[in-house]
Design goal:
Length: about 220
Amino acid sequence: MEGQTHIHPYFPKDLYLPDFTPNFLSSLTIVTYFAAGSIIVFTLTWILSGLYSKASKAERLVMCWLTYNGLVHLTLELYLVFRPYFYQDKTGSIFAEIWKEYTKGDSRYLSHDSTIIALEGLSIFILGPTHLLAAYAVATDKCYKNVLQLVASVGESYLVVVFLTTPFIEGKQYSASPLYFYGYFVVANSPWAVIPLLIIIRSWKKICEVEGTNKRKVQ
């Protein structure tokens, strides 16, 4: 396949990908590795938060998401900064394998779409650290924990809305098939659309509770 610039599984078919190298692993294997890594992060965060934090179960679940999301931004997405031409990878790097597979559902990462570059820049350099700081704030019961959760989740929601709606606004197709569109673009991204919204609602209620308590104390 090396040196064949137009033979690839992505859409559009005329997308120019010099020295494209197919995945070394099967789709099922790649998805399994990603799922296993996600489960490990959630499990470790849940266990450690129970051992070293006095957070409630609800707060521990929030910590799991904040930690996981922060690590995704600072590992998997940061990889794109150093390997923007990941489709040429011949080493079998698991990060390259994941991106080669995922882009069957969203080829904007292959064409270096300007919207994607902007969104990923914000995700990596702002939202990634913010999510990890928010997780730390919850674990250590900082007074700003709810505010930081709210800020991180509002930022995430804004980026997700732009990310998901842009293809429809442009009227363009970036998925190789309906299977990849619904499986990768819709289903795989759905946690980033739903969970931050739930955290926003919860954080807002907590902030209002604190404000209400402070007002009663003053009176």
